[in-house]
UniProtKB/TrEMBL annotation:
<dbReference type="InterPro" id="IPR012347">
    <property type="entry name" value="Ferritin-like"/>
</dbReference>
<dbReference type="InterPro" id="IPR019052">
    <property type="entry name" value="DUF2383"/>
</dbReference>
<dbReference type="InterPro" id="IPR009078">
    <property type="entry name" value="Ferritin-like_SF"/>
</dbReference>
<dbReference type="Pfam" id="PF09537">
    <property type="entry name" value="DUF2383"/>
</dbReference>
<feature type="domain" description="DUF2383">
    <location>
        <begin position="9"/>
        <end position="114"/>
    </location>
</feature>
<protein>
    <submittedName>
        <fullName>DUF2383 domain-containing protein</fullName>
    </submittedName>
</protein>
């Protein structure tokens, strides 16, 4: 790989890293907001998955000679996130915010996967496996959100 590719790959990996850090922080925050112990346990699992992905992305960036940055953008995104409503639909509101956040993360993964990073097999494999983990979480959140949504609807 040429140096310019290394720089581009590093930038793309840093972009993914920022998105996953944001996701990690949102799950931590959601764990404090959610009422259901079952959801708290689920979010703890997702937080652990994000921690692993963060470590993998940092390792990949370092292998390319780059430096990782825990940018203010990720922190600002969490601080400006939607706050859960305080009515009886609090869990549903938290899930809705997390679904939106995970969709944003998946969109970033999709954008990165459309670029030249696909030419590097090891990075492509890493990113695709991470995307699968995030997509599984999104799918579960989506399912759980709509289960709560149905329960909250009058018949």
């Amino acid at each position: 790989m040429e140096t310019s590719y290394h720089e581009n790959y590093t930038k793309q990996l840093q972009r993914l890293l920022n998105a996953v850090i944001k996701s990690h922080r949102k799950y931590l925050k959601a764990s404090d907001q959610i009422e259901s112990q079952e959801f708290k346990d689920q979010f703890r699992r997702y937080t652990n998955e994000r921690s692993q992905i963060i470590a993998e992305l940092k390792d990949a960036i370092h292998k390319l000679g780059g430096q990782t940055q825990d940018t203010a953008d990720a922190e600002a995104a969490v601080n400006h996130s939607d706050h859960a409503k305080t009515d009886g639909k609090k869990d549903q509101s938290v899930l809705e915010a997390l679904r939106a956040s995970e969709q944003e993360t998946l969109d970033i993964y999709d954008e990165v996967l459309q670029g030249s990073i696909l030419e590097e097999f090891d990075l492509k494999t890493l990113i695709m496996s991470q995307r699968l983990i995030i997509n599984e979480a999104y799918t579960e959140l989506d399912k759980r959100y709509f289960e709560l949504f149905k329960l909250s609807q009058p018949y």
